[in-house]
Structures are given as structure tokens and as C-alpha cells.
Amino acid sequence: MKLKHAFMLAASAVLSAAAFFGCNCDGNSCSDDAPAKAAAKTKPLVVYWTWSETHNTKVVAEMLQQKTGADIKLIEMVTPYPSDFGGAAQAGQNDLRQPKAPAIKEMDLDLSKYDPIYVGTPIWFSTYAPPVRTFLQSYDFKGKTVALFCTHGQGNPATFTYLRDAKAAVPEIDYFADVFAFKGTDAANAGPALDAWIEKVNAK
Ligand SMILES: Cc1cc2nc3c(=O)[nH]c(=O)nc-3n(C[C@H](O)[C@H](O)[C@H](O)COP(=O)(O)O)c2cc1C
Fold first, then answer.
1. Which atom of ligand 1 sits closest to the CA of residue 51?
2. Residues 105, 31 share a domain
3. Domain count of the chain?
4. Distance in Å, CA 36 to ligand 1 centroid
5. Are residues 25 and 114 in the same domain?
6. 3 three-state secondary structure
């Protein structure tokens, strides 16, 4: 009897210690499940394209990176648009009329590690800049939430067709319903609005 009692005491001490240290024990093995849970969570990714000299979309992208702990990637064109407004606008308009243009550089990107994926663009002609459409067409976003953000000029965000056009170009993507839009010249002040939006994306 004494031996049985001692055994029960020892067993309950092991179980208590396991509970205290947050371990999962199944009789054969004990494992701390915290690292397993952490490993199962994936990391956010921020991907963006920018054109103007002030790189407003980059400003918001880097803010997002800092706030979410995301990795960040820049979309680069194989042949960049001209640096003058007229040339870029004409090339951009031509590309928007094509189903798949322009070509972008191959990105060293393993999307399986990431969720959500934030995709940012300057608004061009009330929608995404064409290299951003190419990016959405180039990767497999199955099982991911893609949250779109943009910076813009004088236009009214309610009239932008970024989300609608992205849905039309790549319908199989699970897009977050709200696009984050911020005036480019004010990009440095996007922080509070960005916080509220990130919270909504994370709550999805
Ligand atoms: C070719 C071109 C077209 C643009 N079209 C629009 C537009 O339709 N609506 C708008 O509000 N801003 C428009 N803009 C302004 C940009 O969206 C805005 O300046 C943006 O913040 C630039 O981002 P970036 O610095 O990352 O390139 C346009 C800019 C360019 C160069």
C-alpha cells in the first residue's frame, strides 16, 4: 500500500509540474506545445510597388512592416517605366489595356510562410498600377488573405476600382473586403488609420 501511495504522489507531482510548465503529457511523452503553436502561425508579408520620387507607397509599406513584424518585398519591373510623368502615364495606360502586362522580375518568394499578405500600389487611373496586377497574377495565394492598400493623389478612394479590378484579374484570391487608402502626400501620418485597419485584418 505504501509503495502504491508513494507512486501516486510521484505521478501527481509530475502532472502538476507539467501543468505548471505548460506541458502536454499523454503518458508516453511530454511536450511543450507553445513552440508548436508559434510555428503554426505564419508571418505577414508586405509587397508593394512605387514609382514617384517621394515613394509614398513605400512609406506606408514600411510602416506596415514595422507595425506587423512582416517581411517586405518590392515589386520590380523587368523594364521600368520612364521617370517622367507623361512617359510613365502612357506606358501605364497601355499596360492596363493588356490582360497581363508588364513583366516583373522574379521574386525570391516562398508564400507558404506568409499570411496575411499585404499588397500595396500607388493609384493609377483610379486602380492599381499595372505591375501590381502582374504580381497578383504571378503567385499562388491559395489559403491566404490578401489585404490591398494604396496611396493616392486628389482622387476619392470611394471611386477607386483597385479591389474590383484585382477580383476580376485574379478571382480565386481571398481578398480582405476593405482596401486601405491614404493620401500619398500625407503618407507619413498614416499610422493611426493603419493601426485600425491592421486590427480588422487580423480579426478576419
Ligand atoms: C500615372 C499616374 C496616374 C495617377 N492616377 C491617379 C488617380 O487616378 N487618382 C489619384 O488619386 N491619384 C493618382 N495618381 C497619384 C498617385 O496615386 C499618388 O501620387 C501616389 O501616392 C504615388 O505613390 P508612389 O509615390 O508610391 O509612386 C497618379 C499618379 C501617376 C504617376
1. 27
2. no
3. 2
4. 44
5. no
6. helix
Is 100 in the same domain as 190? yes
Question: Can you tell me which atom of ligand 1 is nearest the CA of 55?
Answer: 25
The pLDDT tens digits for 126-140 are 999 999 999 999 999
CATH number for position 65: 3.40.50.360
- 50: number of CA atoms within 13 Å, CB side? 19
C-alpha to C-alpha distance for 24 and 17, rounded to whole angstroms = 11
Nearest CA to ligand 1 atom 22: 122
d(CA 194, CA 82): 31
Ligand 1 centroid to Cα of residue 178, in Å, is 19
pLDDT exceeds cutoff 70 at 33: no
- 87 and 177 in a single domain? The answer is yes
Q: How far is the CA of 48 from the centre of ligand 1 (A)?
A: 14
Distance 124 CA to ligand 1 centre (A): 5
H-run or E-run covering 85 = helix 85-97
Atom number, ligand 1, closest to the C-alpha of residue 156: 11
Are 63 and 30 found together in one domain?
no
Residue 21 shares a structural domain with residue 47: no
Return the DSSP state at 197.
Answer: H
Please give the distance of CA 196 from its chain centroid, rounded to a whole number: 15
Residue 131: give the domain boundaries: 42-203
**Ligand 1 site, CB within 6 A:** 50-52, 54-58, 85, 88-89, 92, 122-126, 151-155, 184
175-187 pLDDT, tens digit each? 999 999 999 999 9
